[in-house]
Amino acid sequence: MKKILISVSVIAAAAAVVIGATTAYFSDTETSTGNTFTAGVIDISVDGENPWTKTYTLADMKPSQTDYINFTIENKGSGANPVNVWKTINVTKQETGVQSEPECTEEQGTWNNTDKTCTTMDAENNNIASVIDYDLSVEVFNADNAKIWWQTIYNKDVTVAEINGQPIFLGMVPANGSMEVTQSYHMKGEETGNWAQGDIMTFDIEVKGEQLRGELVLENKSGDPDWKILGNDTMKGTLAYNVKGPKFEYSFTGHVANDGNYTLIYVGPSGDYPCNGSKVIGSGSSSSGVITLSGSPDLGVDITDGKIWLVPSSTYNTSTNTMIGWDHANNLYETALISYDDTDL
Q1: pLDDT for 200-240, tens place per residue?
Q2: Dihedral (C-alpha) 322, 326, 330, 331: value to the nearest 10 degrees?
Q3: How many domains does the chain have?
């Protein structure tokens, strides 16, 4: 019986070979050749230097005086892509420097008038970073050198000590565009005593550029002319989105001042009030100050250096796609421009 089964198996296998050899199928083969995958370029320069080697000196500072460190971040060159930028101040040293008799006395030391030295200081203090108020604002220019966006991040409402070592998000620099960065360092008046005389603070300024990764923070701002970020409240939103695709896939979570209906909009190519050409991304209601939106609308446009706002629905006309009123107290504004490539166009 076993031999018979084996014989049947062999016959079946042979039949399969014959059938396979004698059967033909219509066919057609097309080949796409020469396809390439090219990595993008992220390479910024500061004040025309790459690498950035410039050194700044704020000399002979006194209480109630202000000095500035300004520079330009450029994102130019063949293959340039929009880039998000951060700036970090790193205080590397605070030291006594030149010592005077008034400083020695305030720091409870013993002053030797003969050799002009101070000894046994029981209250030495070199922390001048704690009495330097900091101001930071940016202006963004496109490839045609036209100013397209600006905001004030700090307005002497933090000290250098408070932001030391913290990356500060400045915004987005368009491809072949630039960003003007203005920083002021203001030595406090009443809080800066003789203990600070002659002291030296040494610090580094680091600027980092990074590709757009589909994340955007929205904040409430003061409006014209400074668009100051009002960071001393809970109003804030986070948008996650795809930077490239047939539809604008997104999710948004925000904290608003008052419950109600809100609309998330792409402001349009110019952003000028009443925002002609704007597009609705999504809308919904907040509960207990929290609003959550998500979706994948077909915007039908590429977004180049665009603005995203969350506004009360009562201030936006969906029929004309225009703003019909300002409500700064309840609006959330972008802290950077975005770009989106609609691959269906």
Answers
A1: 999 999 999 999 989 999 999 998 899 999 988 899 999 99
A2: 50
A3: 2
